[in-house]
Design brief:
Distance between the termini of chain A: 72 Å
Strand order of the largest sheet of chain A: 7-10-11-23-22-21-18-12
Oligomer: homodimer
Radius of gyration of chain A: 31 Å
CATH class of the largest domain in chain A: Alpha Beta
Number of domains of chain A: 3
Strand content of chain A: 15-25%
Largest sheet of chain A: 8 strands, mixed
CATH topology of the largest domain in chain A: BirA Bifunctional Protein, domain 2
Largest interface: A-B, 154 and 154 residues
Number of strands of chain A: 25
Shape of chain A: globular
Chain lengths: ~600, ~600
């Protein structure tokens, strides 16, 4: 038995390392020190300087001119970029006038005494320079090179820091317990998007769960009181842009809490981790009902950084001659609504307006009317001549439209009109911003809660039947409890979403903690086989505390915080939109032999002749 | 848009809650305060007290005797145990003489003013009392009840705290980055124990990786410098006792580090999280070579809390008449070795000694000789009469045996003798401890490093071929590098294990960071298809820093710390040893319809007629 003597510094970024400092930390205060740096060759200059890089920054290394170091010079100058070297040398102040103010280490350079090539790089498929533009597929194939960029280093390191702050807030300040729940689980009723994992028992499969929903509720029944987990979740949605088959959520559940309690917890959480370098946010966040969000913004995740709200203009058409519009207005659930694009005439060209009409036609199968309010007060619109002046005035008054604005009108069933105008509102902003207008400030973060969602929605395929708007464990709004028996479609839920800048980044609810209510919802309303959830129903009968929780979509939230265009930019090794790992080639073919222990075989699709 | 007023306290265990305090925190300093408690009915006493429980403890609630509270009393007294209630009332000092010193809240009681039944419990399959013994299968089926026990609450909460301290140490003190790596990945060469996940593309499967090994190395190539992750790993070993199909490891990788650096990091880590309530440990940990561990303890994870070390007694037999032993000694690689059980004659009965012989026969197909050294100095042993007195003296001298001891002798090939005696050494201790002797102090934790493992081992099935002793990415010991080409079986590796009390709780190594060496190992020594790892080989050619890392088995480490007999006691929802979730019934049957999108079908085994 021997003992090892401890060595090196015992804290900081270079503890326990063969380097003494990182490439980003040397300053003029280090002048005279002998240091050891390890890093990548970023570039060589004048045959006498090598710029070394690591995650923390760059340091200039001076290669001495004296004869005895000729080999050192040869080694360095012939080394391909991105090779890894270790350099030992003395920190010197740069000669006057040669300081680089742009570079944090720009006051000094390291005069190399010895150097060692640790790894010689071959020619790489792209340069590791911040200005190099690369196709995303190339970035994904060589992800280990792509991650060397300062943006990706920033994204991954910020992610780590934020997750750490989330943990500190929950465990150290609020007494939460970090509990790991299984990912090899049982299929949930209706879990069509769950990945399957064959077991060694013929015909039996595990499922990779979409969230730890059942486990977090069972932990409340178990008296854990406050649970959280940075949980890996799985959802098989085939090919959907900007979705990942595995993703991460900050999963939280509390006993003895109400909606307001969960919301206050999350507001404190976001304040706690909010990066200092971003514009600050204020709490509490505004609360908007689902009904308000739908009626004003046409969507349940409104981007409230700008106006262009939906305006009901049905009354303009209720008594006039525009027949098709009057008919719509008088139909049950029918309406005419508008959004106003302020100053739209200057930026939206005919081509743009046509593209909006096209979008309405293609994606919503609806026709929209566009009114261009010219600077001289005249109207350019196909409906201009159908409307009497009084109606025009009424319309302008309701929409507060002025010369130079564009109005976009849609008519039809309320929910169709809302969805369409909600979408066109966002599309208009995109068009304006593509032309250089700044409508939404990207450094502004508008968080808000959307509450009072419907508990059930008609099924897409069989509108006579209901399905859960979110999941079957959501509790009803206490005021609407009497409706559950007879008019379940009218019941609001205790579900709430956290929305920022038009993106849903979290969803929470108070859960049903009464077994008989849960059974009623599953069997009588949703017509599900409740035996698949018998363990949960039994648990709710065994002393279940009232409880609720929330899940934050970590990938999405981070991508918004760092201003990334895709969640792939905040994930170390993401899959392509087809679910492929372009670096390793997963998913891959498996031989029949390797499938045998799992008692499955591939059912090859029949080739169409 | 509305705003919610923040409510409740904003830190501590009851922040954002409908309770004001937990059931474990009230003391005499709270007397006079009106409090709201929520908890489970632990028991009722004398029709006037209800004892409420939550994770933090118990509080006695007094039901007032006055007429106006008759309903309150009725509610409480008829309530089944484990029902959940909310009680509001004033904290009172208990009458003199009625304090309960055993109970942290024993100085006070809460005089109920109002109460609300939040959930009425049905009759449960077992009582939530610490002394209730339950079959493990029942505990697993009703895990949400089992977790209410104070031991399981302690285990899960300690786990959460330790994991948090690990994170703090790595990120806040040593600059590590927490990076999540994918669990839907590609099969690795030889990955026979990997679960498969069918994708929606016919014939293509993801794999659930056994560890993030490739990703952590790629992150070093990516310049992440210091990575860690509390990583979920998957290993399909069929039915093995005390293994879990999914388990958790603290996964660590560093660039520019050597073995000593990683070991020092881990020693600091364990010191940092070591629970105050346990006997302290000292660092640095002792280091033992693999060869030393095998020769002295017969195993590569020695329990050094006790002696009974292996002693080579071959020389006693090299020149004497015991023919079969002499032959063995003279065979290449043959030897005779012994372990001494001090005072063994008093505790080990004939039955016990027979059981040791039986174990040797059944599991190792070997015969052992037992020498009972009676108190009067005479020998009871089948070999006693075969040995001349001088040989007996020699044997006693080598083993330091005294009257009252038992010697266990084994002979054969060195490696077989070591394995057998290593096993019998542990078995002897178990027998002694079953009889009440304390040989190993359970409150003592002996950490040690085992180093200099062989890099390759002969394959079990084809001993002429070599396989990696750990994994193919392990670097060779620098001194043995010249042997790699011609005598790879003699090469020691830079792998090292962390062992505590006879259990391996971590394994680390310095990795190969040179593509040509990695390719040579994969193709020439291991005869693997290196194209499956082409992405890693390419990465090593792209500026790969020297790097190394370690993985700690979190479940195992925690089970040792809390003194649990199984890792299932430190996992919230473990699987049975057959890999079943006894609560939900996973894995479960999946219909053909549900399998269709994945292009697989079940291959039912043919029934034997």
């Amino acid at each position: 038995v021997q003992f090892r003597s401890t060595h090196g510094t015992n804290s900081g970024s270079s503890s326990f390392s063969i380097r003494s400092h990182t490439c980003g930390e040397l300053r003029s205060t280090h002048v005279g020190e002998v240091v050891t740096l390890c890093g990548w060759v970023q570039y060589q200059r004048h045959g006498m300087f090598v710029i070394l890089r690591d995650y923390s920054g760059l340091t200039q290394v001076l290669i001495p001119e004296d004869e005895s170091r000729i080999k050192l010079k040869k080694t360095f100058c012939e080394l391909p970029l991105e090779s890894v070297v270790k350099v030992k040398g003395k920190v010197k102040r740069r000669p006057a006038g040669q300081e680089n103010k742009e570079m944090p280490t720009g006051e000094i350079e390291v005069c190399a005494e010895t150097a060692e090539v640790l790894n010689k790089s071959k020619k790489l498929p792209f340069e590791i320079k911040d200005f190099t533009k690369k196709a995303e597929s190339l970035r994904m194939q060589y992800r280990y090179l792509d991650l060397r960029s300062s943006q990706m280093q920033y994204n991954l390191r910020l992610r780590s820091q934020i997750v750490m702050k989330i943990r500190e807030y929950l465990t150290n300040i609020h007494g939460f317990v970090d509990v790991e729940t299984p990912t090899l689980f049982k299929r949930t009723p209706g879990g069509a998007k769950e990945f399957l994992v064959p077991s060694r028992e013929p015909g039996r499969f595990y499922c990779l769960p979409q969230s730890p929903q059942q486990f977090k509720q069972l932990l409340m029944v178990a008296g854990i009181d406050r649970y959280f987990q940075v949980a890996r979740c799985y959802r098989d949605e085939g090919s959907k842009p900007d979705r990942q088959p595995e993703f991460t959520q900050v999963d939280i559940e509390m006993s003895f809490v109400n909606q307001a309690g969960i919301q206050a917890l999350i507001e404190g959480l976001i304040q706690h981790f909010w990066p200092n370098e971003l514009r600050s946010i204020s709490t509490p966040f505004p609360i908007m009902t689902y009904e308000e969000a739908m009626s004003v913004f046409g969507v349940d995740k409104p981007d409230v950084r700008f106006g262009m709200q939906l305006v009901n203009i049905s009354e303009v058409f209720s008594s006039i001659e525009v027949e098709f519009l009057r008919d719509i207005v008088h139909r049950p659930g029918g309406c005419v609504q508008a959004i106003r694009v302020p100053g739209g005439t200057r930026h939206l060209k005919n081509k743009d307006l046509e593209s909006l009409k096209h979008l309405a036609k293609i994606h919503f199968n609806q026709t929209v009317n566009v009114v261009v309010l010219k600077d001289d007060g005249t109207w350019r619109s196909s409906i201009a001549k159908l409307l009497p002046d009084s109606a025009k005035q009424h319309l302008l008054q309701l929409t507060a439209a002025k010369p130079g604005d564009v109005l976009i009108l849609a008519s039809g069933l309320l929910q169709d009109v809302r969805s369409l105008l909600g979408k066109l509102r966002l599309q208009c902003v995109q068009l304006l911003e593509d032309k250089g207008m700044i409508v939404r400030d990207p450094s502004d973060f508008h968080f808000l809660w959307v509450v009072d969602f419907p508990l059930f929605l008609p099924k897409k395929e069989y509108p006579a039947e209901l399905e859960s708007a979110h999941h079957p464990f959501t509790a009803a709004h206490p005021e609407d409890l009497p409706l559950l028996l007879k008019e379940p479609h009218k019941v609001r839920s205790q579900h709430f979403d956290l929305v920022v800048n038009g993106c849903e980044v979290g969803g929470g609810s108070i859960r049903i903690h009464d077994a008989s209510v849960q059974k009623f919802v599953l069997e009588k309303i949703l017509k599900e086989d409740s035996s698949l959830l018998s363990h949960l129903l039994e648990a709710l009968d065994s002393g279940a505390p009232p409880h609720g929780g929330i899940a934050l979509g970590l990938d999405r939230l981070l991508s918004i915080i760092v201003g990334a265009s895709s969640i792939r930019d905040v994930i170390a090794f993401p899959k392509s939109f087809r679910g492929h790992d372009l670096m390793s080639g997963a998913p891959d073919f498996i031989s029949e032999d390797e499938l045998r222990p799992y008692h499955v075989c591939v059912k090859w699709p029949v080739q169409e002749g």
